[in-house]
Design a protein that fits this description.
With 156 residues, the protein is α/β, with parallel strands linked by helices. It is 33% helix and 26% strand. The chain contains 5 helices and 7 strands; from the N terminus they run ααβαβαββαβββ. It has a 7-stranded mixed beta sheet with strand order 2-1-3-4-5-6-7, sandwiched between helices. α5 (98-107) links the parallel β4 (90-94) and β5. The longest helix has 18 residues, at 3-20.
Length: 156
């Protein structure tokens, strides 16, 4: 075999091995998200399981309720739900889909964060078999610093 060809193949094998190593296979680190919820809330646990399932988010869970966290982060009580989170400096209230959280982190609007008020059936975490496939329409709201909102996304 030609020595130059042999050297090229060896170099390509080294490059391939470097990219096939454990660090490359793992991909980027998951995005840290902190969640406050009741210790007994099943739909909150389901929401956390959903957002962690693809490895894009890694949750630190605080099972102490979310009322104080919601107030501290500036989410108006009228937009409340069963869990509150913070990711990338933004508040996340309720069953916000992962797609909208990723969009928020990409777009970085001047806002407090996102909210899905209440607990709409069919939203992430409220979509298990016990709901029989039912899906209620709902909106993901962008919560602005003056407490007002605008529709960020519509579902259903």
């Amino acid at each position: 075999m030609n020595p130059q060809l042999k050297q090229r193949r060896g170099l390509l094998a080294l490059i391939g091995a470097a990219f096939a190593g454990p660090a490359f296979a793992q991909g980027p680190s998951p995005i840290a998200i902190e969640v406050w919820k009741s210790p007994t809330c099943g739909c909150c646990k389901d929401w956390i399981r959903i957002i962690e399932a693809q490895g894009l988010f890694k949750a630190t869970v605080r099972d102490i309720g979310n009322t104080q966290a919601r107030a501290r982060l500036g989410i108006p009580m009228k937009l409340g739900s069963c869990h509150t989170a913070v990711v990338g400096g933004y508040a996340i209230e309720g069953h916000v889909p992962m797609r909208e959280m990723l969009r928020l982190l990409k777009e970085r609007p001047r806002a407090i964060g996102l909210a899905v008020p209440g607990m709409p059936i069919g939203s992430p975490g409220m979509d298990g078999p016990e709901y029989g496939g039912q899906r209620d329409p709902y909106e993901v709201l962008l919560v602005l610093h003056d407490g007002s909102t605008r529709v960020y996304a519509k579902y259903g």
